[in-house]
Structures are given as structure tokens and as C-alpha cells.
């Protein structure tokens, strides 16, 4: 296809040709030829408009195109050739500008598609082979050189380098990668050389899932948009009826046709979707994926945010801090060994630091337990070499009928220090207490402050940990309310209670034990979703980077988007009202009405495009992690 053909099929061909015919008509100035050129201008600009109107009528839809078509055809019939040409010409220009600016609002999606890599360098039979990115097989080794795009999701198996992950997480600073680190398709190497084992290719990459999610989200309608669509379905026929009535009563056909033109709800129809597209696009650029317009609108109403503690307010990497011996016949190594052997059969996150500490200290853990019985919210029961071992809280001891033997005082002391203590019992007698602690995220207090600044009334912590530990963390973070010792069903009940009290609730959790609460909350938020395909697809909001400050940024973006939606509706309604008054009072012609109408459409679009700018809160970098204080183990002298 040559350039002329491409231009003729472009968005500006129709308005340019129509405009040239109007100019030629004005230059010729002759009654017959001038009128012919003016009618030709109206036909060129109005042909597609009439076709669209006819297709809409066949689908039983009365839209803007029908109003313009009737007005233009009527103007030609009564000899108002200039008005017919001006109305269709201005409408064609408005449509072209609308198309161009809407393309701009979808720029985030276009940028995501642009970063999708086309070629991969794969190591096959010891040779470097260039293949299409989609042709890479799972398990193959891909080479990523300086300046190249990563073509697959994978794990680094050799080399070192720095990757720009802005397209995935919104993080502008390159991230260092080495053996064992995860990499994502579409990220760009800023130095070094990496060998990557492909784990996700083609449509299974994180980038592909993001593109699919953004496409769906930008097309999904908000509740307000759905209402405006229903309103327009009644409004447009009402304008036609009003024009007919005024034409019959006054006998002024020009007035009736002018009412049709100025009554076009173009700005009203586009006011909501253009804001949603821009808002979701801005979020995608910043590593915030919103499921759709409805969820963006709901997020703007959030008044309460519920946060899990472990892995959300804390780093999620607990370490063993204390071993307290309560049986004089045993020593520290004995207590830790029994605890580690019992936890070897547990999937609980707190089992790992105990096992890791025991192995680090060179303790022999032997075989796995003969049996393991997790007790949700209480701990674990295990049979180890024929011995009954319990590791958990006081409720677990009560369940087993074990006397705490002074363990409660130790538990209180450790919990007050912000640690999670667990009693260790061997054959129905308490032998000691082990405790683990998790580092509070450096940006957690700032996140709470920004949520309040964004208009969130209540920030609360929902955790299965003990009351003392939870409160110690809460005091450092600054949350408004703490609910501790919760089972998954208790978290669900807490969310339901907040909703009954009138709060619009967002829940942030890990998606596993928090799944019921996440599903029940008005908005479920998944953090660090870049490496989790399920989170990208299922969460109402997926924060691609494991960054707490993305949460208030998401709430702020939603509120700004809804503000723009309301502004656009006001602009559209005010324009139509002013034009109607101008026509009825005199002074507003058909062409002037169309000009003002198209200007209002552009104002609405430009107003929405403000959302594409990076907001000042998004430019604030999270605070640097504070140095972790040394934690001395508490041991009881034997």
C-alpha cells in the first residue's frame, strides 16, 4: 500500500477533502457551482455518518450519528447548503480529533505492546540461535545481553546483570539480577550478561497477562458509564421528539434541525469511558493493574483498608530470635531440635525459620515426623520417634490438656517485644518456648499516613498472631485498629462487620489464608503480583511491585479518575443546556452549535488526558530500609 492510499484511509482524509470543497465553494462564489461544491462537501463528510446511523438503526439504536444525519439531510432539502456542509465537516473533524486523542489515552497499552520482545537468543546444542520469542520452549536457556529485551519469563541460572523492570512493576531504577532471581519478559538489560531458564513463554508471560488484563479493563464499563449509556438511549430519542414538536409548533424547520444538532450528547457519551481508559492506562504505567472501570470507581470510595500483618506490613521473612528453656533436664539445643523436628512436617511460614536456625546451628534433625496434625490458629501436633510434640500457643496446650508451667509469663514478655512466641511441649510437658520475629517494612508507617491523606478513614490490621505481638507491630506502623488471633473465617467476619458499619473495604493479603476475606471485601488487593499469574487475573487491583506505597497511590489514582468523570459530566451537561438556551433565545445557528458541541467533546477528552501525567505522589521514592537491630537470643540458664 503506497502513501497516498494510506493517507486516504487515515482519519484526516475525510475532513481535509470536505474542507477543501468548502473553501472552493466560497472561492467560486457562483450560485450554482458554489452550491454544488458545498453539497459535495456535505456528502464527503456526511457519507460515513449516514452509513453509521443506518447501521445503528438496523440494530435498533438511536445515536448521535442519526441526529447529525437528519439535520444535514434536512438542511440540504431546505436549501441550507452551508449549514449542511459546516455541520458534517465539523463533526468529521471532531471524530478525527476524538480518535487521535483516544489513541493517546490508550498509550499505556500501546507502550506495553511495544516492549514485547520479538526475538530471542537461545542456546541450542552449544550454539547461539536467533529465534522468534514465541518459538522459545519452556526449559530452554535464553541469553540476555546488554541492551536487549528479556524475551521470556524465567529464572537466572548464570551471569549477573541489571534489568529495567519499569514496564512490569513501574520501578524506574534497574534491579540487579543473579543466580536464582526471577526475570520477566519485556524488561530491558541495562548492563551485564544473563543466562535465563525459560519458565513462561508467549501468552504465558507476565507481560502478556498484563496486556490482556489492561485490554479487558479499559473496555469494562463502570457503573456510572452503564447509567450514562442507559440515559443516552432515552435522551437521544427525546431530542428528536423535542425537535419535531418545536418544528410543528413554530413552523421553523431550521430551528428544529438546529435543536437536533446542538442536542447531540457526544461529550456526555464519551465523558466516562475516556476517563476510565486514561486512569487505567496511568495505573498500568505505574505497575498498578485495575480489573476494570467498576473496580476503579469502587476504589475511589474506599474508606477502610484491612491489612494482613505477615508479608504485608512485615517483610514476611521471620527469623528465630529466642529459645527459652523451661525444663532443667534439657538445654537450648534440645528444645530447638524437638521444635524443628515437629515443624519439619508443617507448611506454616513460621516453621521455616525454626528449621533453618536448627540446621544453621548444626543440630541433627533426623527423619520426618511419623505423623503431623496442623491445628489452625493454634499450632501443630507431631509424633517424632514415638514422642508426642506440640508447638503452638496456649490454646493448643489447653486442647491437649497440658499445664503451661510458667510458659505464659515468657510468652507475654516475648510478645510485648514484638516477637511471635510458641510453646514447645514434649510428651505432655512444657520444655521451653521458641520465638520468631519479622522485620517491619520501612515504608509501612508512610503507607498508613498516605492512606489517611488520600481520604481513608480507618486502617486496620487483621492477623492470626497474638494480641501482644500484633499491638507491638501496630504501634510502630500507626494503624487505627488491631484485631489479632484471627482464623481465616474471623478475618471474613471482620470484613463483613466493617461493611455493615457502612465502610467500603479494601483487603490486602497474601491470597492464601486471606482468600475468603479478599473475596468478600469490596476491593481485593494483591501485592507483588508480577510473579503470580493467578493474582494478576483474579485480584481487583494487582500491585505489580512489592511496594506498600503503591496502595495509597492506587486509591489516589481512583479518586482522581472519578473526579475527572464528574467534571466531564458537568461540562457535557452544561454545554448542552447553554446551547439549548441559545437556540431558543436566538443567536445560536446550526454550524455554531456543532462547533461548540465538538469543542466540548475535545475539552472532555483533554481533561481526561490529565490523568496520564505522573502524579506527584507517584514520584516519591519509598524510604530506604532501616538497619535491622541485632536481636539477642533469650536463654534460660539450665
TrEMBL record:
It comes from the Bacteria. Residues 116-215 form the P-type ATPase A domain. The keyword Metal-binding applies. Gene3D superfamilies: Calcium-transporting ATPase, cytoplasmic domain N, Calcium-transporting ATPase, cytoplasmic transduction domain A, HAD superfamily/HAD-like. Pfam families: E1-E2_ATPase (PF00122), Hydrolase (PF00702). The chain crosses the membrane at residues 12-30, 61-78, 231-249, 255-281, 569-588, 594-612. Its main location: membrane. The keyword Ribonucleoprotein does not apply. It is a multi-pass membrane protein. GO terms for cellular component: plasma membrane. Keywords: ATP-binding, Cell membrane, Ion transport, Membrane, Metal-binding, Nucleotide-binding, Translocase, Transmembrane, Transmembrane helix, Transport. It is found in: Cell membrane. One of its GO terms (molecular function) is metal ion binding. Residues 617-638 are annotated as: Disordered. NCBIfam families: ATPase-IB_hvy, ATPase_P-type. Belongs to the cation transport ATPase (P-type) (TC 3.A.3) family. Type IB subfamily. This is Cd2+/Zn2+-exporting ATPase. It comes from Georgenia satyanarayanai.
